[in-house]
Amino acid sequence: MKTAGHTTRDRWISLGVLAAIALFWQALSILFPVEAAPGEPMIAGWQVMFSKTLLSMADYWQGGLGVPSVSEGAPRTYLAAILSLLSHSFDTIVRLVCGLALGGVAGLALGLAVSWSAWSRRLVDLPVQFLRTLPLLAMVPLFQLWFGTYFIGKVLFVAYGIGVIVFAGTVNAVRNVPQIYIDNARSLGASKATMYRTVILPAILPEMRSTLLLSLGTGWGAVLGAEYLGAQSGLGYIIVYAGQFAYLDRMSLVAIIFIIATSISYRAAGALTARMLEWAPESQRA
Amino acid sequence: MAEAAKSSATNWDAADRRPPSAAAVRSNEKATPRANGRLTLSLRSGIRAVDPLRFLGLIIFVLAWYALSFLFQPIILPPPAAVLVRLLADFWDAPNLSYYGVAEPNLYANLIYTAENVAIAVLIGAAIGIVCGLVSARVSIFRAIVDPIMTTAGTVPILVAAPFLLIWFGVGRESAVGLVIFYVTVIMYLFAQKAASNLNPIYEEFARTLGAGQRQIVVDLLLPATVPEILGGLRIALAGAWGLEAVSELLGSQEGMGKVLEVLAGATDPEGIMATLLLLGFVAISVDAALAWIVARFAGWNAGLHSGGSRT
Amino acid sequence: MNPPSNRMIELVHVQRDFRRADGQRVQAVVDVSFVIPEGQFVCLVGPSGCGKSTLLQMLAGLLPPSSGGIVVDGKEVSGPGPERGVVFQKDSVFPWMRVIDNVEYGLKCRRVPPAERREIARSYLRQVGLSHVERAWPRELSGGMLKRVAIATVFANGGRVLMLDEPFSALDYVTRRQLQDVLLNLWSADKSGVRKTVLFVTHDVDEALALADRILVFRSGCQVDDIPVEKARPRSADSLLEPDMIAIKRKLLHHIGLDRPALPDAEAAA
Questions:
Q1: For residue B13, is pLDDT > 60?
Q2: Which residues of B touch A196 (CB under 8 A)?
Q3: Bridge partner list, C27
Q4: Which of C88, C91, C157 comes nearest A189 by C-beta?
Q5: Is A220 part of the contact surface with chain B (CB cutoff 8 Å)?
Q6: Secondary structure in 3-state letters for C10-36
Q7: Confidence of residue A118 (pLDDT cuts 50, 70, 90)
Q8: In this predicted model, what pLDDT tens digit does every residue of B66-93 receive, in sequence order?
Q9: Do A142 and B199 touch (CB under 8 A)?
Q10: DSSP assignment of chain B, as one string?
Q11: Looking at the complex, does the CB of residue A143 fall below 8 Å from at least one CB of chain B?
């Protein structure tokens, strides 16, 4: 099919679209000065976002580092606001990274182990398929019941969600390794273990990269869901807590920060893993 | 069976590891007469398709669960039998649910509510997403405008919009359905666009040399050829839709599976939670299996036709 | 040193069945027996689907026979191994390793020290004319170059038997002819004394005539002929046109079925 190509003209149009959305938002805020609650506009214009809303972030700072907490009577300051945003972002990101690491490593290791023999692969196939189809986000209450709503509970939830995806992805990737590479390695004299290390592992890298990017998206969703449903800190916590008071402007600000964070993480992950695939033909480096 | 042939261990047991070429098959077909008729043949291959080892794996899983339930108190890990009994009991009538303010005190009605929402959202979202995706693959200006929005939305968990929808649309059907529509639209857009882009240009060129016009190319070539990949994306979208719907209901709703989960969690009832999850999972799996069957039946022709497309 | 073996490769009543998707049994290889002495270059020729590739897979140890025995160099074949090198039809060069690492791979598996294996690999790359792409990635090479890498890899690995499964069939005519020369050069330049025993599967009759000492013809899973080719090498285009070669070619074409009209209507009309 004739495809639309990425030209410089298209890039300018994309930037234009982003600018148009920002302007559209501002126009909406002027046209609809509706308030969800007295003093809380439903659609806050950018001037409000960068002043009042930003300052209000100071409410979420627990205190410390020489900056007093608003809940103890201190005035709202930009410093406290910035600190609070950084600290809550940090909490969310740490939960994600720990869950990603734990789930990713466990999923990969188990996936490789299970793929060693065709028997074990067939044995775990149905239970894993079942766990994969169980809606992840619906399982938050169960994990909260088992592991509580503190750090470890969230990390384990994220790790589970990612672990299942990475496990299934690894098993599938190993299965998709073209038989010819395996035959070739064996004919050249490689033992099964050597073949696993020198052929299977590199061969699955392209597919594992896709799995990684997919699990990144799931991980962010899992962290957010876990924070929505029971947390004392984090970006999701702020959104939901502010939501209870219908502070839409605060929710929007934190949501924007969240969107920026996920986009950056996606690009960073993509760029970092692309280096591992310098040998791969273009089609596999999407 | 072709899957067994691709296993990483050289598979000495697979008698059909390398299927013979068409010519060999043809030449031998004359020698051996066809057996019994089509019905018997399909039955035999159907029986062979059920893999005893996979089945054994499922049994081992349940047994392991059962064994683990001895190590923990029933309040933490109820045994599988208890969960199943609870599921069947609560399906038509669960009086304890009405105590917590659930509109319809049984699993069945709430399941229907959740399923309805998912169905509506998937239909609407898929329609929008597929059309936009296909158009964006053909019209570059449209793509330039819509792509940045969709790709950003694709990386960001749609869940971030949930609290907003709850405030804008209140606690009801609309916010949950809206969330899932958003999700399905983005996924189907990405899949439809990829399917259309991956289509080998050779088909269109050939069609043009045979005299096909623009409209014919869209109807007879673009639409049918992208169906397999789009259906594959639909399966994925559907799988995520269940969870998104459930969590939306968890955040704010008066009915649905999510509401039931919320209520049971508040009552510290792991048996009930697991039963509800089991039911939800079972429904999700059944729908997925049905969709997979449809794909195999109506879109099975496409093995290896796409140029460099990914293996979904 | 051992005297060259008379029975380097020996097949005894080898048979291979397959089960089709609908359950029917198909015999890909039917009761094949032959003996190949060491150092002989043998071509297996036949139309598509005659079982020659299946036979090669069994000889390489990648597929077990349904019945019958395969003995190579006195040992029964039970799996793949470096003594029986294989060049495949599709690209088997590992894309995640540079060319030189690919050629070294077999040696590395057998723990040959780095300096030594690098030298061996370089020498074979030189012999196939690819010294200048030593550090290239496989994705940067053409199909013909990748085949040279595969051939260099197998030769570098040693081994007394070499099997090739329609290795050049996916390449264009000119590249195919060049690679035939590369293969013959490497084969005859073998410094270890006795040349490798080669089994070369092809459906291209001209290719077989250019390369083989002996042609085994297959049809529908059975061996139907065993033709010695006693032309001296190198075989120029002229030597292939001499009467004895033409006679062999005529025989081969008859076996494949190309001396009869392709369309049944034409046959009825004739």
A1: no
A2: 8
A3: C17
A4: C157
A5: yes
A6: EEEEEEEEEECCCCCEEEEEEEEEEEE
A7: confident
A8: 988 888 887 788 888 888 888 888 888 8
A9: no
A10: -HHHHT-SS--SS-TTSSPPPHHHHHHHHHHSPPPS-HHHHHHHHHHHHS-HHHHHHHHHHHHHHHHHHHHS-TTTS--HHHHHHHHHHHHH--HHHHHTT-SS-SHHHHHHHHHHHHHHHHHHHHHHHHHHHHHHHH-HHHHHHHHHHHHHHHHS-GGGGHHHHHHHH-SSHHHHHHHHHHHHHHHHHHHHHHHHHHS-HHHHHHHHHTT--HHHIIIIIIHHHHHHHHHHHHHHHHHHHHHHHHHHHHHS-SSSHHHHHHHHHHTT-HHHHHHHHHHHHHHHHHHHHHHHHHHHHHHGGGTT-SSS----
A11: no
* Cβ-Cβ contacts under 8 Å, A188 against chain C: 82, 85, 105-106, 109, 153-154, 157
- The pLDDT of residue B309 is above 50: no
CA-nearest of A131, A153, A146 to A225 is A153
Among the partner-chain residues A183, A191, A198, the one whose CB lies closest to the CB of C62 is A183
Neighbours of B246 (CB within 10 A): 34
Touching subunits for chain B (3+ Cβ pairs under 8 A): A, C
Q: Write out the DSSP string of A119-174.
A: HHHHHHHHHHHHHHHS-GGGGHHHHHHHH-SSHHHHHHHHHHHHHHHHHHHHHHHH
C79 CB neighbours in chain A (<8 A) are 186
- Assess whether pLDDT exceeds 90 at residue A24: no
Spell out which residues of chain A touch residue C92, defining contact as CB-CB under 8 Å. 180-181, 183-184
Query: Quick one: pLDDT band at residue A11, thresholds 50, 70, 90?
Result: confident
Q: Say whether residue A137 is in contact with chain B using an 8 A CB cutoff.
A: yes
Report the residue from C62, C97, C153 with minimal CB separation from A188. C153
Determine the pLDDT at residue B42.
42
CB contact under 8 A, A281 and C95: yes
Q: What is the mean pLDDT of residues B48-58?
A: 77
Q: Kindly indicate the confidence band of residue C2, based on its pLDDT and cuts at 50, 70 and 90.
A: low
Task: Provide the pairing of β-strand C222-228 with A35-37.
Answer: unpaired
- Kindly tell me the burial class for residue A110, based on how many C-beta atoms sit within 10 Å of its own C-beta (0-12, 13-18, 19 or more): middle
Mutate one of C96, C98, C199 to test the A interface: name it (highest A CB count within 10 A): C96
pLDDT, average across residues C174-179: 94
- What is the C-alpha separation between B12 and A276, in angstroms, rounded? 34
Nearest to B197 among A3, A200, A259 (CB): A3
Separation CA C133–CA C125 (nearest Å):
9
Per the listing, tokens 């619906």 go with: A138
Per-residue confidence band for B307, with pLDDT thresholds at 50, 70 and 90? very low
CA distance A189 to chain C (A): 5
Question: Å from C10 to nearest chain B CA?
Answer: 21
Mean pLDDT score across all residues of chain B: 78
Cis before residue C234, ω within 30 degrees of 0? yes
Residue C176 has pLDDT above 50, yes or no: yes
ipTM: 0.88
* Nearest chain B residue to C21, by CA: B45
A55-74 residues touching B, CB cutoff 8 A: none
| pTM as predicted | 0.84
Could you tell me if A39 lies within 8 Å of chain B, comparing CB atoms?
Answer: no
Nearest CA among B78, B280, B265 for reference residue A230: B265
3-state secondary structure B60-110: HHHHHHHHHHHHCCCCCCCCHHHHHHHHHHHHHCCHHHHHCCCCCCCHHHH
Chain A: residue whose CA lies nearest to B240 = A135
The amino acid occupying position A172 is N
- Hey, is the C-beta of B44 within 8 angstroms of any chain C C-beta? yes
